[in-house]
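User: Two component transcriptional regulator, winged helix family, Qipengyuania nanhaisediminis:
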Amino acid sequence: MPRTCAACVVLRKEKRYPTQTMENQGEQATAPQGATPQADDRTTIALVDDDRNILTTVSIALQAEGFATRVYSDGEAALTALLDNPPDLAIFDIKMPKMDGMELLRRLRENSALPVIFLTSKDDEQDEEAGFQMGADDYIAKPFSLRLLLARIRAILRRSDARRPLPLEVGEKAAEIIERGRLRMDPARHHVTWDGKPVSLTVTEFLLLEALALHPGVIKSRNQLMDAAYPDDTYVDDRTVDSHIKRMRRKFRSVDNDFSSIETLYGAGYSFSDG
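Assistant: Predicted structure for Two component transcriptional regulator, winged helix family:
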């Protein structure tokens, strides 16, 4: 039986996009027929996948929705480009030659909090949990719905935009700095320090920590934390919050081995202690 492109199967049920060829990897993909040229300030999404059909299908669909795209066929080629010229969001496959998506994300997270979605055929729970533990902002299994992918992209970009400093309107107050013991959070700049040392958090991790730190000592259930980090009615499994919390703890322990301010209340949720 001939191999079928998973994304193309979904396209039969959804909005059809014209088929186009791709330009060289790392370049913007060819725009759909009839598309109006866009300014250079469009939101840019990087796609990293060794499946050319996926790159073509997803890139054209994103461009039809007004996004600019850059494409890479392996993680090794993508890493330098993502660090030197970061897009607004990146989508990674996991199984790729030269450098797989997990290793790409691990190396990226050493220097960047760029929002990342895994889009992969590895669909069991262990793979998904590993992806979140590595610092992914979302995880979507193939075969996938383009409608769902676009919804997840927009949700993450909205959360990311909420953390960016914007010019203040007349009479508007800047977002207040959050200080809890040795923790300092600057929501306007998406900046976190512990005892004066910077801690790089993803957008989702920042929102989870903010929800806890704003109410020290108060137990937040997983549902409450999911609402804080995913305010767009996006379905998220309980394990996703647990994975983000584990990764946050590791990040803080990398600057303070004794960090224990994020407490687990088994059967209830999590709380932040500023003592």
